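From the methods appendix. Each design record in this collection lists the tokenized structure first, followed by the designed amino acid sequence. Records were kept in a plain field format so they could be parsed without special tools. The example shown here is representative of the layout used throughout.

RECORD:
FOLD TOKENS (109 positions):
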């Protein structure tokens, strides 16, 4: 099984991961309250999840640093958080659908 980064090549990992077009059309035409879903790679303390929470729902997050993972899970729970090395994650481990994949840069040393 390929790791996540090789799976993303050629959009293989995201094929079929979007909601049906009707859902987006309903949001645009009626203002239906649909929260879009996203993945938060290298989530750290969860600032992306915090900032996007009004219109977006984080359905999968990870970080390799145990201290950052502790802060994230204390604020947002453990059910969608996977601690550890993202290089070991496969596309099959990501819940679907998700409209966005967010990846934060690590802070400088």
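DESIGN:
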């Amino acid at each position: 099984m390929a790791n996540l980064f090789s799976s993303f090549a050629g959009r293989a990992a995201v094929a079929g991961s979007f909601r049906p077009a009707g859902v987006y059309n309903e949001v645009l035409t009626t203002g239906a309250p649909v929260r879009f879903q996203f993945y938060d790679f290298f989530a750290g303390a969860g600032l992306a999840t915090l900032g996007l929470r009004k219109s977006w729902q984080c359905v999968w997050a990870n970080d390799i640093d145990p201290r950052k993972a502790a802060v994230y899970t204390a604020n947002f729970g453990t059910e969608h958080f996977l601690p550890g090395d993202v290089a070991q994650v496969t596309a099959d481990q990501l819940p679907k659908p998700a409209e966005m994949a967010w990846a934060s840069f690590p802070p400088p040393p």
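APPENDIX NOTE: The domain at 34-103 is CATH 3.40.50.150 (Rossmann fold).
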